[in-house]
Amino acid sequence: MEKIKNRETFSSGLAVFFATLGSAVGLGNIWKFPYLTGQNGGGAFLLVYFLCILFVGLPIMLSEFYIGRKTRKNAVGALEQLKPKTAWKSIGIMGVAAAYIIMFFYSCVAGWVYYYLFKAVKGDFVGVTMEAAKAQFGAVIMGPVSPIIWQVVVLVVVSTILAMGVKQGIEKITKTLMPLLFVLIIICDIRALTLPGAAEGMNFLFHVDFGQLSATAVLAALGLAFFKLSLGMGTMMTYGSYFTEDNNMFSTAVKVALSDTLVSMLAGIAIFPTVFSFGMEPGAGPGLLFMTIPLVFSQIPFGSVLLVAFFFLTAIAATTAMLSLVEVPVAYLSEERGISRKNATVLSAVLIAIVGVLATLSVDKASLLGHITFFGMGFFDLFDYISSNILLPIGGLLIALMMGYSIKHEEVVAELSNHGKLKMAKLVNVYFILIRYVTPLLLIVVFLNSIGILKF
Ligand code: PFF
Known about the structure:
- The chain has 456 residues and is an all-alpha fold.
- It has a single domain, classed as Amino acid/polyamine transporter I.
- 74% of the residues lie in helices and 1% in strands.
- It is built from 18 helices and 2 strands.
- A two-stranded antiparallel sheet has the order 1-2.
- The chain is globular and about 60 Å long.
- Bound molecules: 4-fluoro-L-phenylalanine.
- 4-fluoro-L-phenylalanine binds next to α1, α2, α10 and α14.
């Protein structure tokens, strides 16, 4: 990192790309995308998800980059600087809340990944059958002690990295390990595609049947688009604040969204053929990844080594995503509230550990706290639902309204074109049409539809 204007920035355009991708790629691609696609009927859900990325995700990502780089501040400070003494600051405050709520369940799932890595190293999955894979996952989530221990391990790792502020290290990790993760998922794909019955899985993933699509599925696709690209809660503002002055933010947004979607697709191609080949249930829920991947690797040469590599790289991807999540409250607390970076990190980790345990103990109906429900959801599902399906889309809607109606067009043109160095006039016009009309309208329609006010 170099010091520019007393604030750290990423060292180059490539570092900007990989750091941002490091936030986007995580459990969302490998764990959440496949299981939501499975639960919501496959191809039609996928199509809606693509549309959400294009018409909602991309314009909002660009808006967040703009806000962050223009102000070079944390999410709350950035909005306060852009629109002093207005209620727009609440977008940042909601973002801080969303970061914690996501971490409550994300750290739990990351704990399972770390635990699976440990089990894979021990050789627990050698020659595993479908029944055994299911039983192992059941034992892992039921715990109750071990998943909590692994969740705490995750939080210790994340807070140590954050407190040391080793962003340069993070840059290096993401630059080398992301491409490796990519290669490994492709190996999974090749294996999955050569399983008997693989075609049925591909058909499930790519055949569009709108009969399968419900209002809840559309809301889930929208929520997933936000969650996937780390949008609606200030993460991309905070990262934007570390961008270099000469970064072409349009091209960064497009490249990040494309690469991230590619990783999700490759994960889906690894998982669904396996699901169908082994006669499993595509709608199996959060355990889908953990039950299929050990099977993918169970009968191939070097399978156990590849399985270790897979969970290792997934753990890294989850960790870099969490670093960007916790960075939102840490940057806010240290820059706006005068708390030292170290204390802000420790404070956040302790809060996440305490509340996160509720998620860990309520994953399944049979879990220790599984009987406590709100609107039919346990803590784990509730945290997920509130953040992805409510807070992030509302944050996104407010960002779109602010950018579309309350920021001067010329200022956006100037910032996005790097003060005239890039020819951007036409693209900025398209951006404004999307952010003023298309993005907010879509968000409002999906909301009204999901609460039943608008039926289609
Ligand atoms: N995008 C991450 C993933 O898909 O795993 C999750 C995430 C990271 C969401 C950072 C939100 C965020 F601010």
